[in-house]
Specification:
The complex is a heterodimer. Helices cover 78% and strands 2% of the residues of chain A. By secondary structure, chain A is an all-alpha fold. Chain A has one domain. Chain A starts with 6 loop residues before the first helix and ends with a helix. The two termini of chain B are 21 Å apart. Chain B has one domain. Chain B has a two-stranded antiparallel sheet. In chain B, helix 4 runs antiparallel to helix 5. By secondary structure, chain B is mainly alpha-helical. The chains are: A mainly alpha, B mainly alpha. At the A-B interface, helix 1 of A face helix 4 of B. Chain B: It is a multi-pass membrane protein. Chain B: It is found in: Cell membrane. Chain B: Belongs to the CPA3 antiporters (TC 2.A.63) subunit B family. Chain B: Keywords: Cell membrane, Membrane, Transmembrane, Transmembrane helix.
Chain lengths: 493, 140
C-alpha cells in the first residue's frame, strides 16, 4: 500500500476543481496552478525514485484486492512518463502565463489544463483497461475544450473533425474492451494477461489485438490513421499545441506499447509484423509531410508522426534492447516536441506568421532564441551527444540484429530527413537578411524563452547523462520484456 | 401576444415538490435499490427544467440564485474529498467507511461515506445539466 502513486493524479485534479472558484482572478489562477504543477513534479519524482528503489508500486483503490478493484500500477515506464508529463505541464503552464491571453484565461484555461494532466497521468498509471478508457476520456474532453477555446474560425472547424474522430475511436475502444471482456472475463490488465496466456493463441485474440491497434493508432496517429492530426494540431495556440504534441499522441503510443507487451505477445508473427509495417509506413508518411510544407507549425506536427513511427518500430521488434531504445526515444521525444512547439510559438509571436517564406534573419535580433532552436533541432534529429541519439541508436541496432533491414534503414534515413526539415526552419528563418515585423516590439520574448530553454537544457543533460539514466530505462524495458514481473507485482502471487 | 400560463404554472408549483421528493428518494435508495446520485441529480434538474418551462430564466434565477458551475465544483470537491479522506487514515484512495448508528426518528441506520461521494455525483449532475440548459437558453 502506497499512496504516493495517486498524488500525480490527485494534485492536478484538486487544483482543477479549486480553480473553478477563481475564474475571474487571473493572478490567483496562475499562482495556484504553478504551485500545484511544482508539487506534481516533486510527487512524481519521489514516485519514480521509489519505483526505482523498491520495484513496481501498486495501489488497490478502495482497498479491494487486485483483480476485483481498480489497481493503479506504477512501473518504471509509467513513473518516468508521469515525471516527464509533469515537467512538460509545468513548462507549458509557465509559458502560458505570458502568451495565452486574458480572454482564454478567464474561460477555464487553467482548470482544463489541469484536467488534461489528470487524464494523461491517470492513463499512464492505471492498471485496469476500462479505467484506461475513462482516463482517455478525461484527457480527450479536456483536449476538446483546449482545442476550441478562443473560438476562432479555424479552431471551430478543426475541433469538429477532432471530436468526430475521437468519438469514433472511443466507441471502438469500448467495443474492443467488450470483446476482450467477453473472452477473458476480467478488466484488470495483469489478470487479462494471465487469462490470455492460458488461452494461448486463438484467432479471436489476434482480432482483438488488431482492434486495439486501430483504436490506439487513431489516438496515437499511426499510418493510415493519422489523417486528423495535422489539421487539428494546427488550430490551437502554441502552449496547447505543446501539450498536445508532447502528451496526447504519446498516450496512444504508451497504450500500444503496454497492450502489445503485456497482452498480445503470443501470436507475434502476425500482430507485431503488422505493427512493424505500419510503424515504418508512419515514419515515411511523417517524413514526406515534414518535407512537403514550408509552414513551421506543419513541419513540427509531421515530426510528431515520424517519432511515433520510430518508437513503435522499436516496440514491434520486442527485444530488450529495442524496448530500451523505444523508451529512451519516447521520453526524449515528449520533451523535445514540447520544446519545439514552444519555440516556434515564440517565432510566431515575433513575426505574426507561421509561413517560412515570410520569415528571415531572426538570429540578428534574437541570438538566444536562435541557438536554443538550433540545439533543439539537433537533439530532435539525434546528433550524438544530444538526447535523440541513444534511443534511435538502440532501435536501429536491434533492427539490424533482428534482420529488419528495411525498417532500420528507414529509421536511419528518417533522421537525416527530419534534420533537413527542421534545419530548413533554422536556415531560412534565422539566417538571411533581417526583416521588420509588426508585433516585434510587444513580444515578451525573454520571458517566453525561459520554459523552452529549460527543456532544452533537459534535452542536453538527457543526452550527456545517457550512461547515468541507462539503468533506470533498462529497468523499465525489463518489465516490458518480461510481463511476469508486472503480473506478479499486481496479483501478488 | 402574451398567453396565459396559469394552469401550467399552478400545476408546476405542485408537481415540482413531488418530483423533488421522488428524486431525493431515488438518491437515498441508491445503496439498496435501483437509484443513486446520477438519476437523482437528473430528476432534480428535471424539476428545475419544468420550472424553467413554466416560468422564464430570470424568474428561475430569482427563485434559485445559484451559480451552477460552482455547484459542479462543490460536487467534485465532495467526491474527491471523500476519496482523499481515506489517505489520512493510511488507507488507499477511495476506501469507504461505514457504521451503524441509532438516530432519533429513523432508528438503526447504516451510515456510509459512499453517500458523501454520491452527494458529489448528485451535485455535479445537477450543475452540469443546468449549466448546459441555461447556457443554451441564454445565448442568442
Amino acid at each position: 500500500m502506497n499512496n504516493l502513486i495517486i498524488l500525480p493524479i490527485l494534485i492536478p485534479l484538486i487544483t482543477g476543481v479549486v480553480l473553478i472558484f477563481f475564474t475571474k482572478n487571473i493572478m490567483a489562477q496562475r499562482w495556484i496552478s504553478a504551485i500545484s504543477a511544482l508539487l506534481t513534479i516533486i510527487a512524481s519524482f519521489m514516485l519514480a525514485h521509489q519505483v526505482y528503489r523498491n520495484g513496481i508500486q501498486t495501489m488497490d483503490l478502495s482497498n479491494w484486492e487486485a483483480p476485483y478493484g481498480i489497481t493503479l500500477v506504477s512501473d518504471m515506464l509509467s513513473a518516468l512518463l508521469v515525471l516527464t508529463t509533469s515537467i512538460i505541464a509545468f513548462a507549458a503552464l509557465f509559458y502560458s502565463f505570458k502568451s495565452i491571453g486574458e480572454a482564454r484565461e478567464r474561460f477555464f484555461y487553467y482548470p482544463v489544463v489541469n484536467f488534461l494532466i489528470v487524464g494523461v497521468n491517470g492513463a499512464f498509471t492505471t492498471g485496469d483497461i476500462f479505467n484506461l478508457f475513462v482516463f482517455f476520456e478525461v484527457m480527450l474532453m479536456s483536449s476538446y475544450v483546449l482545442i476550441v477555446l478562443g473560438g476562432t474560425k479555424i479552431q471551430l472547424r478543426e475541433s469538429i473533425k477532432y471530436i468526430l474522430v475521437n468519438v469514433i475511436s472511443s466507441a471502438l475502444f469500448v467495443i474492443a474492451v467488450a470483446y476482450l471482456y467477453s473472452v477473458v472475463g476480467t478488466l484488470n490488465m495483469a489478470h487479462i494477461s494471465v487469462r490470455l496466456s492460458e488461452i494461448g493463441s486463438a484467432g479471436i485474440i489476434t482480432v482483438i489485438a488488431v482492434l486495439f491497434l486501430i483504436v490506439f493508432g487513431l489516438k496515437g496517429a499511426i499510418f493510415p490513421l493519422y489523417f486528423w492530426l495535422p489539421g487539428s494540431y494546427y488550430a490551437p495556440p502554441a502552449p496547447v499545441m505543446a501539450l498536445f504534441g508532447a502528451l496526447l499522441t504519446k498516450v496512444g503510443v504508451y497504450s500500444i506499447t503496454r497492450t502489445y507487451t503485456l497482452f498480445f505477445y503470443h501470436d507475434v508473427g502476425y500482430t507485431h509484423q503488422l505493427l512493424q509495417t505500419l510503424a515504418v509506413m508512419t515514419i515515411i508518411a511523417g517524413v514526406i509531410g515534414a518535407l512537403a510544407y514550408t509552414d513551421i507549425k506543419k513541419i513540427i506536427i509531421y515530426n510528431i508522426i515520424v517519432a511515433v513511427g520510430v518508437i513503435l518500430f522499436g516496440v514491434s521488434i520486442l527485444t530488450p534492447e529495442s524496448l530500451t531504445g523505444s523508451i529512451f526515444y519516447l521520453i526524449h521525444d515528449m520533451n523535445i516536441k514540447a520544446t519545439l512547439f514552444l519555440l516556434i510559438g515564440i517565432i510566431i509571436v515575433i513575426t505574426g506568421t507561421s509561413d517560412l517564406e515570410k520569415i528571415s534573419g531572426l538570429i540578428n535580433r534574437y541570438p538566444a532564441l536562435g541557438w536554443t532552436f538550433f540545439i533543439a533541432t539537433a537533439a530532435l534529429a539525434g546528433i550524438p551527444p544530444l538526447s535523440g541519439f541513444a534511443g534511435k541508436l538502440m532501435v536501429v541496432r536491434s533492427g539490424f540484429e533482428t534482420e529488419n533491414y528495411i525498417g532500420a534503414f528507414v529509421v536511419l534515413m528518417s533522421s537525416l530527413l527530419v534534420l533537413f526539415s527542421v534545419m530548413r526552419i533554422f536556415i531560412r528563418g534565422f539566417w538571411g537578411t533581417p526583416r521588420a515585423y509588426k508585433n516585434e516590439e510587444r513580444a515578451p520574448v525573454k520571458w517566453l524563452l525561459v520554459a523552452p530553454a529549460i527543456l532544452t537544457v533537459f534535452a542536453v543533460l538527457y543526452g550527456f547523462g545517457t550512461e547515468a539514466i541507462y539503468p533506470v530505462i533498462s529497468t523499465a524495458a525489463e518489465t516490458l520484456a518480461n510481463p511476469e514481473i508486472y503480473i506478479n507485482a499486481v496479483l501478488k502471487e | 401576444m402574451k398567453t396565459n400560463d396559469i394552469i401550467l404554472q399552478t400545476v408546476t408549483k405542485f408537481t415540482l415538490f413531488v418530483i423533488i421528493l421522488f428524486s431525493i428518494h431515488l438518491f437515498f435508495a441508491g445503496h439498496y435499490y435501483p437509484g443513486g446520485g446520477f438519476i437523482g441529480g437528473l430528476m432534480t434538474s428535471g424539476a428545475i427544467v419544468l420550472l424553467l418551462l413554466a416560468f422564464d430564466i430570470k424568474t428561475v434565477k430569482m427563485i434559485l440564485p445559484v451559480d451552477y458551475l460552482k455547484v459542479v465544483a462543490v460536487g467534485l470537491l465532495f467526491a474527491i474529498g471523500t476519496g482523499a479522506g481515506a489517505l489520512f487514515f493510511d488507507k488507499p484512495f477511495l476506501t469507504h467507511a461505514y457504521t451503524y448508528a441509532y438516530l432519533p426518528l429513523l432508528g438503526k441506520t447504516s451510515l456510509h461515506t459512499a453517500v458523501l461521494f454520491d452527494t458529489g455525483v448528485f451535485l455535479v449532475v445537477i450543475g452540469v445539466t443546468m449549466t448546459i440548459i441555461q447556457t443554451i437558453g441564454e445565448s442568442e
